Amino acid sequence: MSRVAPTLEDVARVAGVSRATVSRVVNGTRNVDPELQETVRNAIEQTGYTPNRVARSLVTRRTGTVALVISGAGGGSDVFTDPFFGRVTAGVVDFLRGHSVHPVLMLADSDHARTEVVEFLRQGSADGALLVSTHPADPLPARLLEAGVPSVLYARPGRPMPIGYVDMDHRAGGRLAADHLVAAGRYNIATISGPMDVLASQDRHAGFRDAMARHGFPYVPTAEGGFTAESGAAAMHRLLTECPDLDAVFAANDLMAQAAVDVLLEHGLRVPEDVAVVGFDDSAPALACRPQLTTIRQPVERMAAQMADLLLAELEKPGQRPRSVIFEPELVVRASA
Amino acid sequence: MSRVAPTLEDVARVAGVSRATVSRVVNGTRNVDPELQETVRNAIEQTGYTPNRVARSLVTRRTGTVALVISGAGGGSDVFTDPFFGRVTAGVVDFLRGHSVHPVLMLADSDHARTEVVEFLRQGSADGALLVSTHPADPLPARLLEAGVPSVLYARPGRPMPIGYVDMDHRAGGRLAADHLVAAGRYNIATISGPMDVLASQDRHAGFRDAMARHGFPYVPTAEGGFTAESGAAAMHRLLTECPDLDAVFAANDLMAQAAVDVLLEHGLRVPEDVAVVGFDDSAPALACRPQLTTIRQPVERMAAQMADLLLAELEKPGQRPRSVIFEPELVVRASA
DNA sequence: TGGATGTATGGGAGCGCTCTTACAACGTTG
DNA sequence: CAACGTTGTAAGAGCGCTCCCATACATCCA
Predict the structure, then answer these.
(1) CDD domains per the record (chains A, B) (predicted)?
(2) Exposed (0-12), middle (13-18) or buried (19+): which is B217, by Cβ within 10 Å?
(3) CB-to-strand D under 7 Å, chain A 19-48
(4) Are residues B101 and B184 in the same domain?
């Protein structure tokens, strides 16, 4: 099309007005003669003008983008295979698009990468950060805070700090699972926890254990997993060795629950007849699993959208007290328990 | 930290040099006295200076970001649940991060959204576009081309146009599946195709059918699916009605293959003993499925990385003839066939 | 009628950076 | 020793935009 993009100046010349007037028409359109507006609009049409967002950003100090930072502790970029992050992304994108804000995706899985994220934001390349950080020891929240970057977390920070976040009542989720299993008349109940250095895992486990204790089961056989299918299968094997007569398993996410079901089936055990299985999250694998998983729903998309909402609010009027929003889990009964 | 960010000017004042010198140190560092460099570096340290990327972009005409556009025809943002897009994202992010380029995520699932994408790029908010477009009728490639936006596609465009892309030899993939099934001694072979308005689906199907014909099977019972689990299950049901004695199914992606397996199992058929199933993609569901899926591998991550590579090359030296790279599929034999 | 108020427009500074140009200081060469 | 690079630095224009301020004119009430 055009070799060199037309500028405000060009439009102004064509319309026979000043740059300022064109700018007014392009933006707020306040106090411009309707007739002149028409002229300017024609000139814009004629020249094929598109405002240069970068130039605008330079003076407004706003880019219209936010960083969506996946601070996965672990192994590189296969985080995107995890349905959880896909759901977060979906929720964020879906919310932001309605506000003409665009997320730029960043992975913060190494110290180098984290520094790059902080730099990126300090340089004003994005207006703020949405931080999906699972590790309580993650230094990124504190560093962003220190750098004065408006940020909101998914999951509460490892130690208290004045930063907004969305989270879920994971303990309540654990309780829901225990209640359901006990109410179903199960007696030998075990659990596959998530990685214990993740707060969400600790909470789900604590909630589950507490409820079990209240139901008269002071000890719950536990195998720690890593939120992946493989780790879930391995944990299930350990559990089966420790207590071959178990009749129920609560897994801290669906991926592990699905793997657990597979292992049980391979051992000739029927699900849910012989062993009931409850998952967590209510993500795609819960439905793909046979039998379909009874699970604890985490409204990831809504939470992600809320996180984005909090950030935009903070950008809108900075310096507010950071807010947090906690979501309630929900038991979803399907075939596996 | 700092209320107002220090600028080049501030650093220059502290170091007692000119802005230009500081700029040289920050960037190319050509022709600056080592001693002075040291002084400047100290000044940078002292002031906590970070270059303002926006200001830099304004003059260099480069933002260091590219748009990753998911031009899903269909239903909004649940595309991120599809493992395919997760893999694309992973491949892109992984490649770009090594080049200090960041992807901004955009969904182009409506005409409005498409216009916004074009605007975004015309405004110079990103240096180029990575377009994951499945629909041959998608107007976006042509519009980006027309707008002069450097772009690379995932999957060849619906009609020939001078734009680079990566793709796979889907026909060869279909052939691989047919060969494998026939070699395994299957006789009543059916297939669940992808949506027929998608080129990849057409190609996979054509390759499969051609190979089948060459093997002496001129007619292949076909049910069209939509690449989703539900559509796969529905297609499997139809196939079972049409030819109850089938002994093999080739599904055009793993999601549908997995669903097909479930339906077969529900019907009391054993996989692979009674019915062999071959999937396509080799994505997460292929491994999660029981039995694990024999499938045709599409190296999505590598393709996505290649796509990003092509775009960066085009940005590096514009005006080159657009390039395309075709990847070969690979048969992955597991338990299901 | 005159000052006060309000509305529409233009002029121009300035956002923070890069990059070209000019120039000073230093060799190096025929 | 004049003429010529070579190298290191400063000065300043300019990227395209927003926004403040000045100006011009219309409108109003006392």
Answers:
(1) HTH_LacI, PBP1_LacI_sugar_binding-like
(2) middle
(3) 19-20, 23, 26-27
(4) no
CB-closest option in A58, A229, A290 to B262 = A290
pLDDT of residue B120: 93
**pLDDT surpasses 70 at A323:** yes
- Nearest nucleotide to A18 by CA–C1' distance? C10
CA dihedral A21, A25, A29, A30 (to 10 degrees): 10
In this structure, is the CB of residue B16 within 7 Å of any atom belonging to strand D? yes
Residues of B in contact with A91 (CB under 8 A): 77
Please determine, for residue A326, whether its predicted confidence score (pLDDT) is greater than 90: yes
Q: Which nucleotides of C are covered by protein (CB under 7 A)?
A: 7-20
Distance CA A80, CA A103 (A): 15
Q: What is the pLDDT of residues A64-121, one digit of tens each?
A: 999 999 986 554 556 777 888 889 999 999 999 999 999 999 999 889 999 999 999 9
For A21, the token pair is: 């007037």
Q: Is the dihedral of CA B264, B266, B267, B269 positive or negative?
A: positive
Angle at B142 (CA atoms; ends B137, B148), nearest 5 degrees:
165
From A80, A88, A13, select the one nearest A46 (Cα to Cα).
Answer: A13
What's the pLDDT score for residue A234?
97
Choice among A296-310, B61-75, B237-251 with the minimum mean pLDDT: B61-75
CA distance B202 to chain A (A): 26
The residue of chain B nearest to residue A62, with distances taken between CA atoms, is B54
Query: What CA–CA distance (Å, rounded) separates A297 from A176?
Result: 10
Can you give the CATH number for the domain in which A20 is found? 1.10.260.40
Residue B335 in any domain: the answer is no
- Yes or no: say if B66 and B127 are a contact pair by the CB < 8 Å rule: yes
Is the domain of B163 the same as that of B305? yes
3-state DSSP of A172-226: HHHHHHHHHHHHCCCCCEEEEECCCCCHHHHHHHHHHHHHHHHCCCCCCCEEECC
* CATH number, domain containing residue B116: 3.40.50.2300
CA distance A317 to A313: 6
Record: contact A50-B122, CB cut-off 8 A: yes
The residue count of chain A comes to: 337
Q: Which residue has the tokens 């707008």?
A: B147
